[in-house]
Design brief:
GO terms for molecular function: extracellular ligand-gated monoatomic ion channel activity. InterPro entries: Neur_chan_lig-bd_sf (IPR036734). By secondary structure, the protein is an alpha+beta fold. It has one domain. Helix content is about 20%, strand content about 35%. The chain has a three-stranded antiparallel beta sheet with strand order 1-2-3. It starts with a strand and ends in a 13-residue tail after the last helix.
Length: about 90
């Protein structure tokens, strides 16, 4: 296998190109005397680890900032949870 042409390759901050090869294959069929060439490209990309560590989704950051213990029930926020004073029947 030969190395693929990477003269116009532009690096990507999200992925690293690990391997890029090309192989020329020539196939002959019984119906036709002329050859049928094709080129098979193989590329292997790997996620850039520094991108995965640094970036986080904005919604997750907002959730972590909002409550480190999760979402509180509405009764607890209004103060209705433990006293029973304003407890309502629920289905």
């Amino acid at each position: 296998m030969d190395t693929g042409d990477m003269s116009n390759y532009q690096s990507n901050g999200e992925f690293d190109l690990v391997e890029f090869t090309a192989a020329k294959n020539i196939t002959y069929y019984s119906c036709c005397p002329e050859p049928y060439p094709d080129i098979t490209f193989h590329h292997q990309a790997q996620a850039a680890t520094n991108v995965l560590r640094v970036q986080s989704h904005p919604a997750l950051r907002a959730y972590q900032w909002h409550s480190p213990f999760g979402v509180l029930r509405a009764e607890r926020v209004r103060g209705e949870g433990d006293s029973g004073a304003s407890r309502r029947c629920s289905p």
